[in-house]
Amino acid sequence: MKCIWKNLVDVLVVAAPKKIVDSFAQTIQAAGLELESLETKPVSVTRALIGPNDKNPYLVLDIGAKTSSLICFDQGTIKLTSTISCGGDDLAKDYQANVDNLASEIIHLVKYYQNRIGQATIFLKIILAGGGANTPNIAATLEQSTKIKTEITWPIIKTKTYNPKFASVLGLAMKKI
Which of 35, 47, 110, 152 has the smallest CB count inside 10 Å? Predict the structure, then answer.
């Protein structure tokens, strides 16, 4: 029997409210600039932190002030993203309860990914990004809770200093590199 599914292509589908996209476009135009492209934050963060030829499975946890994004990166591309309604501000208010919340969401998404998409993929590590990655002991606490190695990874380009809150900005700057 001949396999007709040989030439499959993975497609990442992204949606954004038209109102927001139009607002960005109008702002760029009002500044006298020409919009070349729009890009989602997970794409820019993974570009900054994971090499272009790296096919290993990673989770990227981008901890913002109000929310966090969890990105499943596998086989050289983003396979799944999720938004968690917990951010750095929440960690500052009630650290343990919100770390437990993040860990629970990570474990839930890993199980979902393994059962539905990645066929028992074992993620090598959780890469922390975003300003909330600077929360003291966050990497060690998440690693202990999830049993997945967790660390702040330096960007793939050489920099003298690095703050994980700038991961998405670095990734955007690297788009043409």
Answer: 35
